[in-house]
Amino acid sequence: MALIGAYKNVPCKLPADIAEELATTAKKLVENGKGILAADESTQTIKKRFDNIKIENTIEHRAAYRDLLFGAKGIGKFISGAILFEETLFQKNEAGTPLVNLLHNEGIIPGIKVDKGLVTIPRTDDEKSTQGLDGLAERCKEYYKAGARFAKWRAVCVIDPAKGKPTDLSIMETAWGLARYATICQQNKLVPIVEPEILADGDHTIEVCAAVTEKVLACVFKALNDHGVLLEGALLKPNMVTAGYECSTKPSTHDVGFFTVRTLKRTVPPALPGVVFLSGGQSEEEASINLNSINLLGPHPWALTFSYGRALQASVLNAWGGKKENVQKAREVLLKRAEANSLATFGKYKGGAGGTDAGASLFEKKKKKKKKTYVMMIF
Prior knowledge:
Distance between the termini: 82 Å
Order of helices and strands: HEHHEHHEEEHEHEHEHEHEHH
Oligomer: single chain
């Protein structure tokens, strides 16, 4: 259905044509049965992935791996968009074909990671703020010219009830940064994916995670409203509501679905086209099964789908191993995992895709900084 004229009087003060373009793109990204492939690992992060399969982290290997992902025939049936690292947006494969062209061939919308990573908020107990607002508008213009049509910005909060985390300062910093990023993106015709991740580190219960996630999301949407963000032209990328990975009581997939849906209903306006969940260290199979449980509780006012990185790629990397002769096999693994998540968006995934390997945990525990010891010298 045409949207011409639908956004002439929106409070976000965007030109009607830009508002219409944003809303159209956002809707396409959460099209029925499709989700987003997060292939935006930084050079440092992808090194960890490559180390696991014992291949060198070179620009050639990075291009070959992204070529494997984007060149899988039929992947566009299950994937609507792909989040790229800046290097990838301008990169070509061995044959000289721009990698974004491979996405276009499958009808997949290219996106771009625009944040510059995390830094500690001064005078906090290692709570984090996200860098990258400086120069973001100019970068967005260049990304749009290169073919990107949406962006992603990750912020994080940590749960530690004993230390009062997340603090109100951390939550407000998360909300403000995401809202400011979203407005800059929309002014430059990129759909912002708003990602306030509640890390799964800790021994907290699912009930505690639900309470914290609700508080954070409420604050984020208040900030988005204050900044005049066009909700119809944005997406949310939250964590599912789960217990901390060190919690002694593991919730059922039904509980994950129930608390996740309840939290969204309490905080997310129905004007938002969709929610694209991050996997948060869940195994590939857990991420699919929990997404299925969430959608079994529908119908919902928004599309509830996926934006997975490791939960779509872990088995693919293992199947590939950096060898050309394994590319087709690895692509078949990718297609099976993508199809499983597609089925989960309809609540129709029965489990079992990928076998036992898909059940391996992908959780990476946050490394704690060593405390410095100071010795007082008395003379």
